[in-house]
């Protein structure tokens, strides 16, 4: 194999060895220079101290940079090493006993801190480690028989138990030892950099859920990392005692913790050179402050603030970026996989074994049933598509398979490969051959493309590397193997997510909206990847809203609604099932009275040639749309068609990437966001008040508006104005959300998915109220998944398909509705083939 | 008879310890409340809260020494703390990207270092006496309770009641709670987040300055006088659940009482060991704190 990636892999191996040699080499040179007497004794002492602080900064910085754990416990662990050495030296302990004892104790404490802290947030870790240091400081002060209290204790010489000689403290020998130890610590860190250990640590930090899906347990990683880091901190403590020859509580204060964090932020957490810079900074900052004539804390504070504002990543990564930008200016040419003719989806063998069987699986979050009665099976080589409208329970089902239900409680039976799946931890499922991708392609941002795939293995062998490179070539990512995910387009991002899921050679592959946000070419490539897995005999479960592509690769489709399966069938037939069809299109209900329009209405809002992108993802393209005053306009489309984005652009709170929005003079708009977005801990009245506050209404006017809006509310809400909004039913919350929008006194009301998650009776009530507003002259835009509901409630319907307007027409025209229904699913307008009568 | 006598002494002693525990706890609770108000509104854990309050105290002491009565001097302390704090926020915290929890925390650590050093330079780091509004003690049973302790509890209670009124009964308070619940939704509605952030900082710093003013007469004034209370306030807010204002007050009071009990009945040298071990143990059992809401991670 002579691909550019394999070349760079071997180059990487070489450069790792070179880099690892740099630390000890530099230490050796430094010792020789010190030995030659070129450095005056006081400076030599400072160099020894700087070496000690380098080891300490390394232990704090790498833990922060790789593991995302900012520790305030390190002064205490540092002190542990120093006191251990000093106490041992006066009690005849050997060097080996002191080093192993100090390192071992610190590692055990570190494992506890890391393990306990990993369960919680960064702030919790900060408190836990802060508490550890506070307690240690008190113990240091009080346990005078061991620590000597404020007076401290002297550090004597240490003999070797193995007869390797004697270590004298506070002399040139101790300084050389410190410098040498720093060199070796740097070498160890350089060797750890390309290891699987670091990759898994970084992966667990950047995205815990995705890490679990590839078999990485964040708790174990963090305990291990903290243990190793604590061991190095204790080693630094032993060295400190040796170099200084005396141990007292002074150096181990909380100020040291802050200074250490400052040193790491300044040098750049997670870089080795950054640790050297940080160690030097800790040692010489006092001298520098003195010569600059400012108090040391001021210098330190200013440096810290300056670094955070100007160089948020630290000095060393900043310089690194500058250098990299120069060297990699020429972009490697994209080696795309050849465009193949569409392949036929292979049928699974008739004798293919059943890989997964679900029986009556349900998931509840608190009292809420997200999924119930889900039963299905998948055979080897078979692809099952799961479809259903928003909130149908599809993602919950996927999370059951990958073990990421979070706080939910799963019940029922799920048998995978003869084992009960629900009892198996998320991190163990990767090993059992379950791989998954994520809707938004959750890659590990701080690992390169190649490392994203490599971190799925515990060890990083040549064979694993070769396999990972092969995998990247297979999905067309080989040309970007050494880049970071952020530098990739959304399409390549999704390919990487897939490659990572395939790295474990899964028997069951779970894909969460793999087609969403991809362009036509990327979708074809993805379909090829799926077919390739089918040929391998992989069982595949996919959910998606892009039905055409989904049906092209699936053997079977299961439709969900309201958390339970409602139908099952072949891809070509499933939409013929009236229940499945109506779960998307909705039940019409009776057409309400609407104000008469004569076509002379003024335009409330007009959009011209509007496009919108999120990052590289196109949400809207080429939208030309007018909203006439006094109309009810239904904008209909499947999930992901671009409705919410369009709603926010009409509202004026989102500026389109391209194109123009013009609104009538003094038009006031209000948006009721999808999912209602009420403040659940606030009472009904407070929710309304806050909305008025946001528009700048105060005092008597606010009270009058509140009174008026309260009159609009149904009596059962009006009587409960002091109750927290979280206690209302879904439908009541929706009505309150509309009322909150009314507090702004809008001329145009935009309502995003008003029926989401509501029972049919509640949907009727909500729509009844919206109809009432329209009769009173309000312009209303409804963003709806359900075509039938929008048609029943509006003057006009616009169908969105994949970010573009597919068709627009009068809601009362049955011929138009037939066209709209067709356009809803495939984006095609029949009218272009057979002109509809106008 | 002798035994009975000893018992009364014990009860009096306990009462004294409890009252001074509540007084310490009131100080920690006020500081914790300040921390929580700022954290909820702006996602910043304000480590500089203590040292900025001490800046206010030194300014107040200077004014007092030049003849200003103590009460206006106290108001000046609050005004100086709030003024300096808001200036600092606008210049160095606001430019940070939103959601940079760690950067903001480290930034406030830097501010704290600078503030303490500026105090030592402008004034000096020799301990000074700080005047108190009241002197003497009230005898309750056989115990002589310092009036300053009772005043501390009373003033803190009034301040907390005012905060409860502000958040519970006023529109601006509702808006602050709305931002705390969901900054995203608040933005959709068009609530000005910067304005809310400034109000929260001013309020939080004001409460901390008040706490400092109540604490300093007992502890004397040095540049780092509030470090220990700040750490105990942190323990209190974690105990209370980090985002709960009631939790901050109750957590602070709990820490104050425990801290004084430990100092009197266990060992004066191990009071933080006692307080922090207790806090960590509670959190190991109940990670979300006493009043916190457990949040779930979503994929």
In terms of topology, how is this protein built?
The complex is a heterodimer of chains A (838) and B (299).
Chain A: H1 4-35, H2 41-67, H3 74-90, H4 95-118, H5 122-142, H6 144-147, E1 153-154, E2 158-159, E3 166-167, H7 172-192, H8 196-206, H9 208-213, H10 218-244, E4 246-247, H11 254-267, H12 272-292, H13 296-310, H14 315-327, E5 354-365, E6 368-379, E7 383-387, H15 394-402, E8 409-416, E9 419-420, H16 426-429, E10 434-436, H17 449-454, H18 462-475, H19 490-502, E11 508-512, H20 520-536, E12 539-543, H21 547-553, E13 556-561, E14 564-569, H22 578-585, E15 603-614, E16 617-628, E17 632-636, H23 643-651, E18 658-663, E19 669-672, H24 684-694, H25 699-712, H26 715-718, H27 730-742, E20 748-752, H28 760-775, E21 779-784, H29 787-793, E22 796-801, E23 804-810, H30 814-826
Parallel strand pairs in A: 7-12, 7-13, 10-11, 11-12, 17-21, 17-22, 19-20, 20-21
Antiparallel strand pairs in A: 1-4, 2-3, 5-6, 5-8, 8-9, 13-14, 15-16, 15-18, 22-23
Helix pairs in contact in A: 1-7, 2-7, 2-10, 2-11, 2-12, 3-4, 3-5, 3-10, 4-5, 4-10, 7-10, 8-10, 11-12, 11-13, 12-13, 24-25, 24-27, 27-28
Chain B: H1 2-42, H2 49-65, H3 70-93, H4 101-122, E1 137-140, E2 143-146, H5 147-169, H6 171-181, H7 183-189, H8 193-219, H9 227-240, H10 245-266, H11 271-285
Antiparallel strand pairs in B: 1-2
Helix pairs in contact in B: 1-5, 1-8, 1-9, 1-10, 2-3, 2-4, 2-8, 3-8, 5-6, 5-8, 6-7, 9-10, 9-11, 10-11
């Amino acid at each position: 194999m002579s691909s550019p990636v394999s070349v760079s892999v071997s180059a990487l191996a070489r450069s790792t060895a070179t880099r690892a040699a740099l630390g000890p080499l530099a230490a050796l040179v430094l010792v020789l220079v010190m030995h030659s007497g070129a450095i005056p004794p006081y400076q030599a002492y400072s160099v020894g101290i700087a070496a000690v602080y380098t080891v300490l900064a390394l232990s704090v910085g790498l833990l922060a940079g790789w593991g995302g754990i900012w520790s305030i416990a390190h002064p205490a662990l540092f002190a542990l090493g120093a006191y251990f050495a000093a106490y041992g030296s006066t009690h005849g302990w050997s060097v080996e006993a002191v080093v192993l004892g100090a390192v071992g104790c610190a590692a055990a404490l570190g494992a506890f801190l890391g393990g306990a802290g990993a369960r919680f947030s960064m702030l919790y870790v900060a408190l836990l480690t802060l508490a550890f240091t506070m307690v240690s400081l008190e113990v240091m002060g009080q346990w005078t028989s061991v620590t000597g209290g404020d007076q401290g204790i002297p550090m004597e010489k240490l003999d070797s138990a193995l007869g390797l000689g004697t270590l004298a403290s506070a002399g040139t020998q101790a300084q050389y030892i410190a410098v040498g130890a720093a060199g070796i610590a740097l070498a160890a860190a350089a060797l750890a950099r390309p290891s699987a250990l670091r990759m898994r640590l970084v992966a667990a930090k950047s995205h815990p859920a995705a890490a679990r899906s590839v078999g990485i347990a964040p708790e174990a990683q963090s305990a291990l990392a903290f243990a190793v880091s604590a061991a190095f901190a204790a080693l630094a403590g032993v060295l400190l005692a040796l170099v200084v020859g005396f141990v007292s509580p002074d150096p181990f204060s909380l100020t040291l913790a802050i200074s250490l964090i400052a040193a790491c932020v300044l040098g750049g957490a997670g870089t080795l050179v950054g640790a050297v810079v940080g160690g030097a900074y800790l040692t010489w900052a006092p001298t520098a402050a003195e010569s600059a004539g400012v108090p040391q804390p001021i210098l330190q504070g200013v440096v810290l603030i300056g670094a955070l504002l100007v160089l948020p990543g630290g000095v060393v990564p900043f310089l690194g970026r500058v250098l990299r930008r120069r060297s990699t200016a020429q972009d490697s040419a994209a080696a795309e996989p050849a465009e193949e003719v569409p392949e036929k989806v292979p049928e699974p063998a008739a004798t293919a074994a059943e890989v997964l069987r679900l029986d009556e699986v349900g998931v509840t979050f608190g009292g809420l049933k997200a999924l119930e009665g889900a039963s299905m099976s998948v055979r080897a080589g078979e692809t099952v598509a799961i479809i259903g409208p928003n909130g149908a329970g599809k993602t919950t089902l996927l999370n059951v398979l990958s073990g990421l239900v979070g706080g939910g409680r799963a019940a029922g039976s799920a048998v995978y490969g003869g084992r009960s799946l629900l009892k198996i931890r998320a991190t163990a499922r990767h090993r059992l051959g379950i791989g998954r991708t994520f809707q938004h392609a959750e890659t590990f941002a701080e690992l390169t493309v190649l490392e994203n795939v490599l971190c799925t293995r515990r060890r990083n062998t040549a064979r694993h590397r070769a396999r990972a490179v092969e995998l990247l070539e297979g999905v067309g990512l080989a040309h970007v193997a050494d880049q970071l995910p952020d530098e990739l387009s959304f399409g390549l991002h999704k390919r990487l997510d897939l490659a990572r899921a395939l790295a474990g050679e899964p028997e069951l592959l779970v894909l969460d909206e793999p087609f969403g946000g991809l362009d036509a070419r990327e979708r074809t490539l993805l379909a090829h990847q799926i077919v390739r897995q089918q040929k391998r005999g992989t069982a595949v479960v996919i959910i998606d809203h892009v039905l055409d592509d989904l049906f092209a690769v699936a053997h079977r489709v299961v439709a969900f609604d309201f958390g339970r399966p409602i139908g099952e069938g072949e891809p070509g037939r499933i939409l013929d099932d009236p229940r499945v069809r109506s779960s998307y299109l909705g039940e019409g209900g009776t057409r309400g009275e609407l104000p008469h329009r004569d076509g002379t209405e003024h335009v409330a809002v007009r959009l011209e040639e509007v496009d919108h992108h999120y990052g590289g993802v196109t949400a809207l393209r080429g939208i030309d749309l007018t909203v006439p005053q006094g109309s009810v306009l239904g904008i209909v489309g499947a999930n992901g068609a671009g409705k919410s984005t369009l709603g926010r652009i009409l509202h004026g709170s989102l500026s389109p990437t391209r194109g123009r929005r013009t609104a009538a003079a003094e038009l006031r708009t209000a948006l009721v966001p999808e999912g209602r977005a009420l403040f659940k801990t606030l009472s009904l009245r407070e929710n309304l008040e806050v909305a008025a506050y946001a528009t700048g209404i105060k005092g008597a006017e606010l009270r009058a508006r509140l009174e008026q809006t309260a009159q609009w509310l149904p009596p059962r809400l009006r009587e409960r104005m002091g109750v927290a909004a979280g206690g209302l039913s879904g439908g009541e919350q929706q009505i309150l959300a509309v009322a909150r929008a009314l507090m702004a006194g809008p001329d145009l009301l935009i309502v995003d998915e008003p029926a989401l998650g509501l029972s049919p009776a509640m949907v009727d009530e909500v729509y009844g109220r919206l109809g009432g507003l329209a009769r009173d002259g309000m312009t209303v835009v409804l963003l709806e998944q359900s075509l039938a509901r929008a048609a029943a409630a509006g003057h006009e319907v616009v169908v969105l398909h994949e970010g573009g307007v597919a068709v627009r027409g009068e809601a009362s025209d049955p011929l138009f509705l037939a066209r709209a229904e067709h356009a809803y699913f495939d984006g095609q307008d029949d009218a272009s083939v057979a002109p509809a009568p106008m | 008879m002798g035994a009975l006598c000893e018992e009364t002494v014990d009860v009096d002693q306990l009462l004294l310890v409890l009252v001074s525990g509540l007084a310490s706890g009131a100080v920690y609770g006020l500081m914790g409340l300040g921390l929580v108000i700022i954290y909820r509104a702006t996602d910043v854990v304000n480590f500089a809260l203590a040292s900025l309050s001490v800046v206010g105290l030194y300014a107040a002491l200077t004014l007092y020494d030049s003849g200003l009565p103590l009460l206006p001097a106290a108001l000046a302390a609050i005004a100086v703390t709030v003024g300096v704090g808001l200036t600092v926020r606008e210049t160095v915290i606001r430019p940070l990207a939103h959601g940079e929890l760690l950067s903001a925390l480290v930034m406030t650590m830097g501010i704290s270092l600078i503030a303490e050093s500026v105090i030592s330079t402008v004034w000096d780091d020799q301990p000074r006496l700080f005047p108190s509004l009241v002197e003497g003690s009230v005898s309750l049973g056989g115990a002589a309770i310092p009036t300053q302790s009772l005043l501390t509890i009373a003033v803190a209670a009034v301040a907390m009641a005012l905060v409860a009124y502000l958040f519970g009964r006023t529109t601006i308070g509702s808006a602050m709670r709305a931002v705390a619940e969901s900054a995203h939704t608040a933005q959709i509605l068009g609530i000005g987040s910067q304005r809310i952030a400034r109000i929260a900082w001013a309020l939080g710093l004001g409460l901390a300055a008040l706490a400092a003013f109540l604490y300093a007469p007992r502890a004397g004034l040095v540049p780092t006088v509030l470090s220990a209370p700040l750490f105990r306030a942190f323990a209190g807010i974690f105990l209370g659940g980090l985002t709960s204002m009631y939790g901050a007050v109750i957590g602070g009071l709990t820490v104050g009482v425990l801290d004084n009990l430990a100092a009197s009945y266990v060992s004066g040298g191990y009071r933080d060991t006692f307080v922090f071990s207790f806090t960590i143990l509670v959190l190991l059992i109940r990670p979300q704190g006493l009043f916190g809401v457990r949040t779930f991670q979503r994929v």
